[in-house]
Amino acid sequence: xxxxxxxxxxxxxxxxxxxxxxxxxxxxxxxxxxxxxxxxxxxxxxxxxxxxxxxxxxxxxxxxxxxxxxxxxxxxxxxxxxxxxxxxxxxxxxxxxxxxxxxxxxxxxxxxxxxxxxxxxxxxxxxxxxxxxxxxxxxxxxxxxxxxxxxxxxxxxxxxxxxxxxx
Length: 167
Fold this sequence. Notes:
elongated; mainly alpha; 86% helix
């Protein structure tokens, strides 16, 4: 027979798992949307299509990525605190470090996306390509790809962690 405290703890663990899952869905879905947009636009998009793409990216960043990363971070903090503890074993520590790196990289991407969007707006206003635009855009893509890898790794790591697999 479970006590009320254990039932309540299990409830909150489920809630924070759900919050984390929603965060992962928001982040991965938005990043994959950006990948599709890059493929559709091709190698030589027009200034108008770049401008429209950047407006979309800025909106998605505000609506999906920032809340998604916040949900992942909040869920990870509370799950670590309630269920595993901080830095208790190798697998949990790796997952916790990955979450911190994901948050830091997402902040970097968000700041970089703002600069890239500002350049796209400036390109639209002057009707000319700014050479630095593609360089910054490529860095944004690289950091986005890195976040995908880290997000997927942080989803896979819990499958390796069991009570028997303590390193």
